[in-house]
């Protein structure tokens, strides 16, 4: 087992803990196409870790590997000091990993409140019979979880829309509801797939604030994919840079910024 | 050859012939599915409707006679003429095109961008409507359909096989004709979609609706086109089946067999529809021949569905479909 | 004016999540229940029971069942008729094998057996989706009907191949068999429907319901947020089949009295129930009631008008009915995919503001 005791404190006083998750030599193929080639990196407790790279670099595939949706052909995923065996995505969710999606994946037929309540499904325990009779544990549980969900609703400032069907919401709010659903699971590790794509400046600022607040207040570890370089450099503690399925850089925003490979990839210098 | 094997071979051959008819209906499904993503449950009823209309034209029935009589107290039923088969077929094809236009106009246009399962249920509604409509228009009694296709035992095959094995195979002339027609239809449809301008547009639409629209292909025209073709295919299937067992409601249920055919062959593949049809046709006859007597017979009712079900569990994309990569 | 929620404040989350959060709705619901239990049983006659009320109550149970599977969990099934047949034959076998046990227990056990069969045919839903699954459920429909037709054990080797319900009583009153009164049939079905509807409502508003709807709306996302698709889909199949099985048992034992499988539980039955939930409203318990009422009443009405008033032939009226049903399905899917339940909801929203819309 890896040494997990290390840790450090950032310049702004946040405590970064030991390694929470480690990806070792991950390779993912679709048929003959390699989406990810031999990538390793780690994620520390309490940090904001960004994955960046041009379109088609394999970022979303990487996130899908972390959330268990894709199973890599080679490599190991270590979480909380244990090697994660082959798992179905719902089992991964129960380990405390939740996520948002690049193309919003909310449940359109349900209200905002119900959507966020689904985030807590992994934490609910009442049985079928209990719920059918709506008696004892089922009712108590519903109320308890509703209270928790209302806190998140307050936190993300979406009180006014809680009974609205999500299908009717504008894009920016949908993104926020999706974040709320992910947060409702009280995750150890939160994966955000382009949380700011398609937003205007104001919405981006709001979203950045929420991400920082989540990290700060709940101590949630966050992995995010984002195209907006300004946002990434401001938010994240460390950055992984991918290109054509390979890792070409890894380090603090400053280190990555001065990495010649990264500059090449972003300025479109010919690959050799 | 031992007798048992001979009988089995005969059953298999007859199954192949029945399979050709399944393929024919399945072809209509595939065309519509490829062009519009609609899983057209009404295809079977379309075949029934086409056959009813054909018989009606041939015998000079007055359309809606039943209804008119009930409302106005008249006693109409026939115009008193007989149309030649070919004229009736052409007229029926015209009706099928008109039907395609109506369907596009009043149903499909309003259902663009709905999830596939809603479209599927809408076609079930359409099937009900068409069934009632066909019955009101032409009456619900069982009708004989005869467009002059050869029927009955093929004596050449009977004689030749008797000569060779000492047992004459019973193969119906109609089945042979059906196989030839189906083969011709498949070839001409393939040529049409590969080499004609409309065919190219059709394939473009099948690939990507938005992109096809943006290069100036009229989606609505394409839909009318495929539904017309599907209507024509239904007409052919209706003629074959109607000649074989009369025009009646059960025709649309037999046509339901095309569904398992498609699940086997994959929804987007024309060769898949053909091969799937042959497998199902032959499979159910052989199953009935070998296993049927042991478990009470009439297994044709469900064999195709159960086969498709089991097959799908192991290979969800069908025989010829590509492996599905799921994305989020 | 009369439909107000102003001043109707909720002070706890439990209050907020109750079935009828608006007081007016709640009062009306109590009124309907009071009439259903307190008035109708005393005035009902044979015609109304057999033509309208009993089929409505039984179909409502089946519609709630299918709505759980299709409307809430998003798995379209065309095997409803076959599953009703399982309920009917299970009930028949139980009734004839254990005559001393209460019919109520037989009906519930029939539902349980159907649930097991439902789970069996639900297993492929893990691999196949959408209309592929719909077609796969046709396998259940055709296979089950064939099975009950061909295996004499199921109909106790009777010469006609039919099953017929012997007389069974509850608290001394016959509820099956020839001697049953209209109000006994009605009350027996009503009590079961009332209990099952209440259970369904509880299931759909809580955790299980959310899991089902998550699978319906986006199965991949649902799995990633922690919903186990296997247990969720199978629970929907099991519970849905339980309801449908109970409906099948009642349909045979109480309503028909004697049944032949192909006729009573053919594929037309599957479509009938499916149409009920499309017209009534997918994903709505109230919609199941509305749809069942509509599909039961419409033919009765049409028959009375076309055959009774205009003197049309019955087969012509039946064809008109087919056309109307088909057209209605298409119209509802185009105009209001959530059915009559949604229309009702919209009407209520209008009423809430009436007569001052601004």
Automatic annotation (TrEMBL), chain A:
InterPro entries, A to Z: AAA+_ATPase, ABC_AA/LPS_Transport, ABC_transporter-like_ATP-bd, BCA_ABC_TP_C, P-loop_NTPase
The ABC transporter domain, residue ranges: 21-269
SMART domains in the record: AAA (SM00382)
Family matches, as Pfam families: ABC_tran, BCA_ABC_TP_C
Cytoplasm among keywords: no
Alphabetic keyword roster: ATP-binding, Nucleotide-binding, Transport
Taxonomy, superkingdom: Bacteria
Keyword Nucleotide-binding: yes
PANTHER family recorded: ABC TRANSPORTER ATP-BINDING PROTEIN, CONSERVED COMPONENT OF ABC TRANSPORTER FOR NATURAL AMINO ACIDS-RELATED
Protein name in UniProt: ABC transporter ATP-binding protein
Organism of provenance: Albidovulum sediminis
Top-level taxonomy: Bacteria, Pseudomonadati, Pseudomonadota, Alphaproteobacteria, Rhodobacterales
TrEMBL record, chain B:
TM region positions: 12-33, 40-59, 79-103, 110-130, 176-196, 217-241, 261-281
Recorded topology in the membrane: Multi-pass membrane protein
UniProt KW keywords: Amino-acid transport, Cell membrane, Membrane, Transmembrane, Transmembrane helix, Transport
A Pfam family: BPD_transp_2
Annotated InterPro entries: ABC_transp_permease (IPR001851), BCAA_transport_permease (IPR052157)
Cell compartment(s), UniProt: Cell membrane
Similarity remark: Belongs to the binding-protein-dependent transport system permease family. LivHM subfamily.
Protein name: Branched-chain amino acid ABC transporter permease
Organism: Albidovulum sediminis
TrEMBL record, chain C:
Pfam families: BPD_transp_2
Keywords tagged on the record: Cell membrane, Membrane, Transmembrane, Transmembrane helix
CDD domains reported for this sequence: TM_PBP1_LivM_like
Keyword Transmembrane: yes
Keyword Membrane: yes
Subcellular location: Cell membrane
InterPro entries according to UniProt: ABC_transp_permease, LivM-like
Membrane-spanning intervals of the chain: 27-44, 50-69, 76-95, 101-123, 130-148, 183-200, 236-259, 271-296, 316-335
Protein topology in the membrane: Multi-pass membrane protein
Protein name: Branched-chain amino acid ABC transporter permease
Record lineage: Bacteria, Pseudomonadati, Pseudomonadota, Alphaproteobacteria, Rhodobacterales
